[in-house]
């Protein structure tokens, strides 16, 4: 595995692989089994695997946890190598954003729902870094986890709308044995909060089961939200159900329904979701 820190070197290397299948896994580091599942799938599908580790300041608001975001490059490098990564791109913020162009990307209506409702500009920052990384790596396929379902929906829509020559591959959420979604931010949970956090997935499961039985979205959301309020000390940011991937109100015409939640604990904001295939209900 070769570790690369500059854009110039990455471009030079990638120019040698344009006749190959290139799999790309963009990450912010502090890798866990969820990231590993993306890397393994990329390794299975492609001739060359590129991963990036970059804590992107463009997607953090002024009061968010950019400085506290966990980092462990030695661990990440070892995990990437074990998963079969060929090229690990680890740029600095100065390397990625050497000057302010004044040109921005706006994620539009999809970014006003769910996480975007309380994180203005977050998904604009995601599109900014993804655009740069896709141009540099020129991947055949890029791999994203379904835990960040809104991000995935926005990236899929962006890629399709602007004809990026890359296939977006969805990978199911990887969970702990008790159901908690793997997340780099889980490390910030206290022992008590860690025990409580399993109820996010339990609440989502409860809500989806109620909806499957009754088709009553309002009842499903009320009972799912109540489960979190009863069983955790966290503060609910949202608990919602929308069509997927266009993130609109659920109607009889939708193919997939996204049940999603975000909950604030003392030092961490956790998200989770379940996507229901309507045809299987």
From TrEMBL:
Catalysed reactions, semicolon-separated: (R)-pantoate + beta-alanine + ATP = (R)-pantothenate + AMP + diphosphate + H(+)
Cited InterPro entries: Pantoate_ligase, Pantoate_ligase_C, Rossmann-like_a/b/a_fold
Subcellular location, record wording: Cytoplasm
Keyword match Translocase: no
The protein's name: Pantothenate synthetase
Species assigned in the record: Psychrobacillus insolitus
Residue sites binding (R)-pantoate per the record: 59, 151
EC number in record: 6.3.2.1
Pfam families for the chain: Pantoate_ligase
Binding sites annotated in the UniProt record for beta-alanine: 59
Protein family according to the UniProt entry: Belongs to the pantothenate synthetase family.
UniProt-annotated binding residues for ATP: 28-35, 145-148, 174, 182-185
Further details from the record: The reaction proceeds by a bi uni uni bi ping pong mechanism.
């Amino acid at each position: 595995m070769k570790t690369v820190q500059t854009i110039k070197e990455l471009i030079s290397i990638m120019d040698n692989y344009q006749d190959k299948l290139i799999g790309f896994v963009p990450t912010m580091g502090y890798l866990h089994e969820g990231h590993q599942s993306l890397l393994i799938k990329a390794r299975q599908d492609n001739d060359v695997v590129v991963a990036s580790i970059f804590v992107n300041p463009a997607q953090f608001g002024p009061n968010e946890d950019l400085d506290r975001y966990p980092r462990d490059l030695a661990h990440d490098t070892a995990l990437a190598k074990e998963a079969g990564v060929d090229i690990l791109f680890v740029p600095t913020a100065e390397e990625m954003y050497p000057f302010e162009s004044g040109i921005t990307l706006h994620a539009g209506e999809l970014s006003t729902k769910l996480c975007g409702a309380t994180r203005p500009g977050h998904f604009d920052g995601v599109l900014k870094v993804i655009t740069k990384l896709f141009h540099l790596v020129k991947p055949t396929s890029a791999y994203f986890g379904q835990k960040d379902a809104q991000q995935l929906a926005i990236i899929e829509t962006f890629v399709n709308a602007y004809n990026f020559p890359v296939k977006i591959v969805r990978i199911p959420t990887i969970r702990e044995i008790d159901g908690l979604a793997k997340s780099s931010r889980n490390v910030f949970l206290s022992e008590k909060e860690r025990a409580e956090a399993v109820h996010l997935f339990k609440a989502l499961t409860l809500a989806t089961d109620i909806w499957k039985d009754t088709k009553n979205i309002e009842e499903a959301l009320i009972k799912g939200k109540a489960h979190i309020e009863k069983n955790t000390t966290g503060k609910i940011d949202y608990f919602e159900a929308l069509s997927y991937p266009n993130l609109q109100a659920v109607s009889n015409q939708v193919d997939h329904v996204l049940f999603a939640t975000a909950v604030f604990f003392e030092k961490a904001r956790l998200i989770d979701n379940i996507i229901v295939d309507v045809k299987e209900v």
